[in-house]
Write a structure and sequence with these properties.
151 residues, five-stranded mixed beta sheet, globular, 40% strand, alpha+beta, four-stranded mixed beta sheet
Length: 151
């Protein structure tokens, strides 16, 4: 192998390794802003506004949101991967891993959220009846949340 080929291969590994680490770290399920982990500037840039839920680190933030009847809640994707906003029951969440063991869609809403920055990276729904509305992301078993609608 020539010295140039060796350098090119080494350079490729140095470029690919950070990208691989970024993907792995993004899938750890660590909640940004946890007491032992400061929130980065990019995470702060995707904080939820009023009546808004943001996807970040394979979580819905906030996980629980309380709104009055007639409020439109908007979900915004803060990640470079797709998610779903699927209404329905979920349960059997493992306390150690955060993974849900069951999910049943109820058909109220089911939207595929495009990756951040792409058309379709938001979804809005107006809650006209009081109650507790559970929802989840179908492919990501750590993403479970609820909207509490007060009369």
């Amino acid at each position: 192998m020539s010295p140039t080929a060796r350098i090119t291969r080494s350079g490729l590994a140095l470029v690919a390794l950070p990208a691989l680490l970024a993907v792995l770290v993004g899938c750890t399920g660590v909640t940004p802003g946890a007491p032992d982990e400061p929130m980065s500037a990019s995470e702060a840039a995707v904080e939820a506004g009023p009546n808004e839920v943001v996807t970040l680190s394979l979580r819905f933030m906030p996980e629980d949101i309380t709104v009055p009847v007639g409020t439109t809640v908007t979900w915004r994707n803060g990640e470079t991967i797709g998610h779903t906003i699927t209404s329905g029951a979920w349960g059997d969440v493992n306390e150690s891993t955060g993974l849900r063991g069951s999910q049943t869609a109820d058909g109220l809403f089911d939207h595929a959220l495009a990756p951040m920055g792409q058309e379709g990276d938001t979804f809005s729904f107006t809650f006209d009846e009081p109650g507790e509305y559970l929802y989840f992301c179908q492919p990501h078993l750590t993403m479970n949340a609820r909207v509490i609608v007060e009369g």
